[in-house]
Write a structure and sequence with these properties.
By secondary structure, the protein is an alpha+beta fold. Helices cover about 30% and strands about 20% of the residues. Strand 8 and strand 9 form a beta hairpin. It is globular. It starts with a helix and ends with a strand.
Length: about 550
């Protein structure tokens, strides 16, 4: 009888376990590019870059304590050549495969560098260049030393290179070649052939990351599924699938979370925080290396070319009042980095709310209530790291009105603003704006400061949108970039930051705390002190 029962039970069909699916509402208006070099700012890196791809160097996102360090990615180690510090040797991780099954090796690295640097390469893709080269402007070339060793060359000695390379994601040359070979022979022009191949690749992308692309519906949804053969056992996903939905309106994101349409929303509206928590969701926050500024144009004819006007604006913003408006979800900024940073330095310009001092500076500059200065600022309605850009900018507009500023806004879509950022204040894409509001990650020296004030980062090379040209800035940057000793580098960066504050090259407003609302069904969430977060280590009940 027992045996019969055993056979009877064993013959019964097993019930398949439910698929574990995590659904995320992003602030982006479109799916970030899936072909290897994401657009949509760092929300692209967060949601299509890091999950689907790997870089030679990565970020350790496993802890919510302390600054986020670099960690080996597809390279196990890297060293600079002491005899020629423009050359770096990267030892590659063995036994790694792309999603299509082809091997990752040195030739794949060389191919991926060429896709954004070598205009003669069949795989060269101008669409991927803007979001990549501006983040690593000294990258010059790569060559294979052997199957698992690569030499990477820079245009000048650059101690920042390992940080920069976190942005160069490795796509499969074999998968791309299949798409290229399928382009009709009637398409002769090389860039058009490459474009069509990359467009086809984007729908059947192949990286080495913990998730694989399953389905892409532009402007609607992206589905990525578990890569159970991922090379890092600690990051083999516990989730079966992640669904990413573009949802730029904060109110729409909130409604989607409250109704159960999604499990996770980026940048919840401040007035929705308590109702969100009451529905069994958690608000995750952490201090982030981040600046939410206005970046001033110092080009000829800009009112911001006058240092007194720049400093006056910084003294006329009530940051604590803004923090209250945002339900505490920000940290007031007095510089690019926080005072606790080794790069803080010794600024003498004390950024605080002092409208009387602001008005005094404005009067010295020739402005008054009856003669305000007219300024135009290009902003977005949403976007990665943009926090709550419309209410925040309207708040600043009202503050500055009390200090003789007449502020007008040019509101554009986030990706448009981001692309305009590299083209500069003099470009037609700026629409005559004398300031731009693009939030920025500040986790490494290049991203935090160098790209904004180096004369070598003028448009369209990188993000010196405002044409800051200053020999002292360039000298401090040279000292930092060529200091391979961390203490010496920090000392040079502290001098650089001191001058950036004293010269008030930005309107320093806020540091983000990265608020995201996530259902309590989602487990294993670690919100690091980073712009990024690791989905691969999460699970869902």
């Amino acid at each position: 009888m027992t045996l019969a029962v055993f056979f009877s039970a064993s013959a019964m069909p097993m019930t398949a376990s439910a698929e574990s699916v995590l659904t995320i509402a992003m602030t982006a208006a479109d799916i970030p590019r899936t072909s290897g070099q994401p657009d949509q700012g760092f929300e692209g890196n967060r949601f299509t870059g890091i999950p689907m791809y790997d870089a030679l160097v990565g970020w350790d996102l496993s802890s919510d304590k302390g600054a986020t360090p670099l960690t080996p990615g597809l390279a196990t180690s890297w060293t600079v050549d002491e005899a020629d510090r423009t050359k770096w040797i990267f030892k590659l991780r063995p036994d790694v495969s792309f999603h299509d099954g082809s091997p990752f090796n040195a030739e794949a690295v060389v191919w991926n560098v060429a896709k954004v640097l070598d205009k003669s390469a069949p795989q060269y893709d101008p669409a991927q260049v803007g979001a990549t080269v501006s983040r690593m402007p000294t990258l010059k070339a790569a060559k294979a030393i052997d199957a698992m060793t690569v030499e990477i060359t820079t245009t000048e000695p650059d101690a920042f290179l390992p940080y920069n390379l976190t942005n160069l994601f490795m796509a499969s040359p074999v998968q791309w070649q299949k798409k290229f070979d399928a382009v009709p022979a009637s398409v002769k022009e090389p860039l058009e052939r490459s474009k069509q191949a990359w467009n086809a690749f984007a729908s059947e992308a192949s990286g080495t990351g913990p998730f694989k692309l399953s389905r892409l519906v532009p402007r609607s949804r992206l589905e990525i599924i578990k890569n159970d053969r991922y090379w890092n056992p600690a990051r083999i996903p516990k989730l079966d699938k992640v669904v990413l939905i573009p949802m730029p309106e904060a109110s729409a994101r909130t409604a989607a979370l409250m109704s159960g349409q999604v499990d996770w929303i980026e940048a919840p509206a401040p007035d929705a925080i308590e109702p969100i928590k009451a529905r069994g969701n958690t608000i995750y926050t952490n201090v982030q290396p981040h600046i939410w500024p206005w970046q001033f144009s110092l080009a000829e004819g800009s009112p911001w070319a006058d240092k007194r006007v720049r400093q006056a604006a910084n003294l006329c913003v009530d940051r604590e009042g803004m923090k209250g408006m945002l339900a505490g979800l920000m940290a007031p900024a007095q510089g690019v980095v926080a005072k606790s940073s080794p790069w803080w330095g010794t600024p003498t310009f004390d950024i605080k709310y002092d409208p009387d001092a602001s008005r005094q500076l404005m009067q010295e500059a020739g402005f008054s209530e009856s003669k305000p200065v007219k300024v135009k600022v290009q902003i977005s309605a949403s976007g990665s790291g943009q926090m709550q850009p419309l209410p925040m900018n309207e708040y600043i507009q009202q503050n500055l009105k009390e200090c003789f500023f007449d502020v007008q806004f040019d509101v554009v879509e986030w990706n448009t603003l981001f692309n305009s950022w590299r083209l500069g204040a003099k470009d037609a894409s700026a629409h005559g704006a004398q300031a731009t509001n693009v939030s920025a990650a500040t986790m490494d020296p290049f991203f935090a400061m160098v790209r904004f004030v180096s004369s070598k980062a003028l448009p369209p090379v990188s993000n010196n949108w405002g044409y800051v040209i200053d020999d002292t800035f360039d000298d401090y940057i040279r000292q930092a970039r060529t200091s391979f000793d961390p203490a010496q580098r920090d000392a040079a960066l502290a001098k650089l930051h001191t001058r950036m504050v004293d010269e008030a090259v930005f309107l320093y407003v806020a540091h983000d705390v990265g608020p995201r609302a996530i259902s309590n069904k989602v487990k294993g969430v670690v919100q690091p002190q980073s712009w990024f977060i690791d989905i691969a280590t999460m699970s869902k009940e």
